[in-house]
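Q: Hi! First time doing this. I have a protein sequence and I read that you can turn it into a structure. Is that right? Here it is:
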Amino acid sequence: MPEPERIFSLALSALHSRPSFRPFHEGVEVSWLYGEGEPGAAAALLRYAPGARVPAHRHSGYEHVFVLEGVQHDREGRYESGTLIVNQPNTEHEVWSPEGCLVLVIWEKRVTFLPEA
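A: Yes, that's right. Below is the predicted 3D structure, encoded as structure tokens:
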């Protein structure tokens, strides 16, 4: 089995040209860096189209979100490019981006999506 990637360029030109982006949620694409389909830690790039959102979910472990481009929102605020957000274990939120954005997300443990009201 080939070794997984270990080093990633965070240059926007390299991130946007990744061939592995595919649908994640309506209007949001994912490119997995590691941990796809595994129960533990994972990391991915999420690319939001303008107006896209990720529905409410609960964190069982830490989630680190680095906004690489654009603006991401949750009920706590608006996060511009260059912002690092750390969501604590046992917290819940939903995320959206009116303008579109590109974020790097690192999960200690997988999230659980909550039923929509």
